[in-house]
Amino acid sequence: MDNTYSLTQHAELLKAILRNNELSICQYLTKEDALVIYDRSLAVRQVLPGYLRHLEERAAIHPEDCWKVKEFFQGKIRGEMEVRLQRKTGPAKMLVQILSIKDMEPAVCIPVAIRDVTQEKHREAVLEDQAKRDSLTMLYN
Description:
Blueprint: H1 3-20, E1 23-29, E2 34-38, E3 44-49, H2 51-58, H3 66-73, E4 80-85, E5 92-98, E6 109-116, H4 118-132
Antiparallel strand pairs: 1-2, 1-6, 2-3, 4-5, 5-6
């Protein structure tokens, strides 16, 4: 098997994983202060230069959560974090997670996976409410 076939095969696998898990991928370029957003076919969809300033001025991220994203890209927060997006259809919560890739230097590039957890959070709230109430009377236990 030659390298070209192998790379193509791996790219197709990654695209399938992104589609089936409803993940979005982007990367923050620390030195350029730019956010590169990829589509599901791994093509560059958008580049946002001066992202930290953009975040404060006109980002879709809820104003109360902007500080978390800023600290996330400055390396002060690691791991998973939830942020709310402002959408015309209503607020949404997104789970943002840094991908740990050993070969990438975080001082240069921070790869990020983004997953919408709005429905998950809604289901959790419903289940929590059901656990607190009697199923017949709907009174609190």
